[in-house]
Write a structure and sequence with these properties.
33% of the residues lie in helices and 15% in strands. It has 209 residues and is of the alpha/beta class. It has a 6-stranded mixed sheet with strand order 1-4-3-5-2-6. Bound molecules: 2-acetamido-2-deoxy-beta-D-glucopyranose (2 copies) and zinc ion. One of its GO terms (molecular function) is peptidoglycan binding.
Length: 209
């Protein structure tokens, strides 16, 4: 094959592969996005039960909604964190009858990010926002105390990572759960006061209904 034909063939292959991955909805994350992967604990690694059903949505999400678990409280070791994730998944799946754990991702006190439903999967953490947000849980009761600083740093890193990888819009809006749902104190009084100082927090809630 001539050099020119090789170039043409290569370009054709590349465009075909990228069209195929687009069509089947795989987000081809750029390689610079891999930097957090060692801190992200996949569903299989924490022993998640399979979802009863699973729907995806397109494009980078415009919102991040911050939650606390209330119960269980802060966990500090990987084994306690796995146990907390299973406890939350069981509550949502078995007691509440949802298809899966409600949140998109969770930050735990062992310094890791636990995969919940995962990016671009319709979740169950805030009505109207489930198909256009990352529902980010910090495991613990933050009514009277803040999450450990390391958890808050990790949450901010993870949000930045989500933007850099194209899962979250650059102009995303960050809300506390209580802003989009009446009758909940989530993410706890102490933590809610803190996230008001975080990048992209917005007081006004857009009417998206
Ligand atoms: C999310 O769901 C609502 C109602 O179910 C729908 O009106 C809206 O268009 C959906 N948004 C996205 C981004 O899919
Ligand atoms: C909460 O209730 C207030 C007062 O009834 C209402 O104005 C607001 O829209 C409600 N917010 C949500 C997220 O439902
Ligand atoms: Zn919440």
């Amino acid at each position: 094959m001539s050099t020119r034909n090789k170039v043409i063939t290569t370009l054709w292959l590349l465009s075909t592969i990228s069209a195929l991955t687009r069509n089947i909805g795989i987000h081809a994350a750029p390689t610079e996005c891999k930097y957090m992967e060692s801190s992200i604990i996949s569903r299989s690694a924490w022993g998640a039960h399979p979802p009863k059903d699973r729907f995806t949505f397109d494009g980078p999400a415009p919102f991040v909604i911050i939650h606390h678990s209330y119960k269980p409280d802060v966990a500090l070791s990987p084994s306690c964190c796995r146990k907390s994730m299973l406890e939350i998944q069981n509550l949502h799946q078995k007691e509440r009858g949802w298809s899966d754990i409600g949140y998109t991702f969770a930050i735990c006190g062992d310094g890791n990010v636990y995969e919940g439903r995962g990016f671009n999967v319709v979740a169950a953490h805030a009505p109207l926002y489930n198909n256009r947000s990352i529902g980010l849980l910090l495991i613990g009761d933050f009514t009277d105390k803040l999450p450990p600083q390391s958890m808050m740093d990790m949450a901010k890193d993870f949000i930045r990572y989500s933007v850099e990888c194209g899962y979250l819009r650059k102009d995303y809006i960050l809300y506390g759960h209580r802003q989009v749902r009446n009758g909940t104190d989530c993410p706890g009084d102490a933590f809610y006061a803190e996230i008001k100082k975080w990048p992209h927090w917005q007081e006004d809630v857009k009417d998206i209904a």
